[in-house]
Each structure stands twice: as structure tokens, then as C-alpha cells.
Amino acid sequence: MEEEALHIRYLIVVAAVLCALIIGYNAFFVPEVSLPAVSVDASAPSSGSSSSEGAYVPKAPSSGQAFAGSSKGEARGKININTATAAQLSDGLTGIGPVMAKRIVEYREKNGAFKSIEALKNVSGIGDKTFEKLKNDITVDNG
Fold first, then answer.
1. H runs (alpha helix) in the chain
2. Which fold has domain 52-143?
3. 80 sits in which H/E element
């Protein structure tokens, strides 16, 4: 019985060492794989026109790449807070989650289109600090 317990302890030690080796190998020798981000916006209206007015433009994760904006003069890489859906706002703006995005859309529906990007500060929960983080990523192109 004593010998069986000793063998079990040896097996546990061997298993722990093998686990440590596998973890170490994965941490240091397996190359990082980055997949290209593909965004499909199923909620975009299909009006039949080829214009991309008010189109959702995702923000690059590294903020180092620019994306094309709409053909109506929207700045490159910016999200139009007057036309974006809650999902587009939460996905495309750093620091804006689903709850805050819903507040922005509800505020816009209740009070009309934003006249300036600074008007975003009127939304409950968006103060000066949050606005400073967002101001370079948003626009209020009213067409």
C-alpha cells in the first residue's frame, strides 16, 4: 500500500512537470497569429443606392490605420454620431460600451441630431474626460 502511494506521488510530479513544459513551450515558442478583422454590418439599411452616406466605419484597433469614410465629406476613420446605431457606436468607439451607446442613440432620438460634437457631453455619463478621448474619432456630418 505504501509503495502504491509513492508511485501515485511520482506520477503527480511527472504530470506537473509535463504541464509546466507544455505551458512554457506555448508561452515562448508558439508564434502569435493575428487574423484580419472583418466587419459586416447587418443592421445597415439597404436603400438600393450605392452611396455610403452615414456609413459605419470601424476604428482600427491600433489606431495606426485609417479607414475610408463616406462619400458625403465624412472625415476618414470618424463615426457620425448622428447616423450610427448603438452597435456601431459601441464597436467603433473606445470607451463606449453598449449601455452608453444606447444612451447616445436615445438622446439623439429625443432631442434631434447633434449640432456639434461638443453636444455629446449633454448625454448622461459623458463628461469632459470621455469627450476628450472621443473627439478625434467622431463627427456630426448632417449632410
1. 2-28, 86-92, 98-111, 128-134
2. DNA polymerase; domain 1 (1.10.150)
3. strand 79-80
Can you tell me the distance from the alpha carbon of 52 to that of 69, in angstroms, rounded to the nearest whole number? 8
Per-domain boundaries in the chain: 1-30, 52-143
Nearest CA to 91 out of 49, 60, 51 is that of 60
What cell numbers appear for 41 in the block?
454590418
For the question of whether the overall pTM of this predicted structure is more than 0.85, the answer is: no
Return the amino acid letter for 25.
Y
What digits encode the pLDDT tens for the residues 66-93? 333 333 333 457 899 999 999 999 888 8
Cα(106)–Cα(54) distance, rounded to whole angstroms?
18
Measured distance CA(38)–CA(58) in Å, rounded: 10
Of 25, 34, 128, 43, the C-alpha closest to 92 is 43
Three-state DSSP class for residue 140: coil
Cell of 120: 455629446
- Residue 23, class by beta-carbon neighbours within 10 Å (0-12 exposed, 13-18 middle, 19+ buried)? exposed
**pLDDT tens digits for range 14-23:** 999 998 888 8
